[in-house]
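This section describes the prediction task in plain terms. A model, or a person checking by hand, is given the sequence of a single protein chain and must write out its three-dimensional structure as a string of tokens. No templates, partner chains or ligands are provided. The sample shown here is typical of the held-out split.
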Amino acid sequence: MKHLKSLVLAVATATLASQAVAGGFAPVVAAPEPVAPVTVVEPTAPRSTFGILLPLALLGGLVALAVAADEDDDSTEND
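The expected answer:
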């Protein structure tokens, strides 16, 4: 009977000890706080004058070609 009391005491102690370390030895991690979403604001692109100069230059080139071609037609008719 004496061994039975020791055995019951050992089982009870082991049961209580396993419940005490059920969480393990890892540090406690608190729940993260909600973070407000980050909004990304892209800066406005600087305006470029190249966007207007290129079409004007092409238009000038076409006018120059038209004037040059017109002069060639006049010179051949006079010959």
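For orientation: The chain has a mean pLDDT of 76.
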